[in-house]
Design a protein that fits this description.
With about 200 residues, this protein is α/β, with parallel strands linked by helices. It is built from eight helices and nine strands. Bound molecules: guanosine-5'-monophosphate. Guanosine-5'-monophosphate (5GP) binds next to strand 5, strand 6 and helix 4.
Length: about 200
């Protein structure tokens, strides 16, 4: 088994991160999702402790002061943060921990956690991106515009990532990510006992 590692997936609002990550988690029991905290209001289908930990701004800021976040950022006017203890414990257990976070958060993780794999999820086109945000129907017109503007800015950071995946079809995007994970599990640095493993097989 390879050592645990962090898998960061970022991408603009409407790139389909949520759907792709949900499918990935359904298929791979060795991937654990890190539930973020946020000050954003829950959407109708979202549950506290499942999609996010929904906090007040006061609660969120207290957690920042207590250094409880691995990274945190202000995204589309709301705070979002990754719980530090949960993530580090899971990695210690050898799990792959999936963080679905924005570019600012990814840059903070990049600075502090060297073994992380960074994937940038892209829509097939920016027109399609806008259609998807509008179709989702959960954001106000002002919020749609803000998310679309931010998407262009986020694209400038794709060069900071290890891999890009185009989400034309969920199935294709999930398959690409599965290939990335399989290759990453075989990185020599993720194993401390390769020689021992082979020697054991010889002895049998
Ligand atoms: P949404 O409000 O659509 O659920 O998420 C908005 C943005 O916040 C997305 O780009 C999502 O990846 C990002 N996000 C979600 N959780 C976190 C987090 O813990 N940290 C950071 N930095 N971004 C997050």
């Amino acid at each position: 088994m390879s050592k645990g590692f962090l898998l960061v997936i970022s991408g603009p609002s409407g790139s389909g991160k949520g759907t792709v990550c949900a499918e990935l988690l359904k298929r791979h029991k060795d991937i654990v999702f890190s539930i973020s905290a946020t000050t954003r209001k829950p959407r109708p289908n979202e549950k506290h402790g499942v999609n996010y930990f929904f906090l007040t701004e006061e609660e969120f800021k207290k957690k920042i002061e207590e250094n409880q976040f691995l990274e945190h950022a202000l995204v589309h006017s709301n705070y979002y943060g990754t719980p530090r203890d949960f993530v580090l414990n899971e990695i210690e257990k050898g799990e792959i921990v999936l963080l679905e976070i924005d570019v600012q958060g990814a840059l903070q993780v990049k600075k502090n956690y060297k073994n992380t794999v960074f994937i940038f999820l892209l829509p097939p086109t920016m027109d399609e991106l806008k259609n998807r945000i509008i179709k989702r129907g959960t954001e106000s017109e002002e919020d749609i515009e803000r998310r679309f503007r931010n998407a262009f800015e986020e694209l400038d950071f794709v060069g900071e990532y290890d891999y890009f995946v185009i989400n034309d079809e969920v199935e294709n995007a999930v398959r690409d990510i599965e290939h990335i994970i399989e290759a990453e599990k075989l990185r020599v640095k993720r194993h401390s006992d390769i020689k021992k493993k082979v020697m054991k097989k010889e002895e049998r």
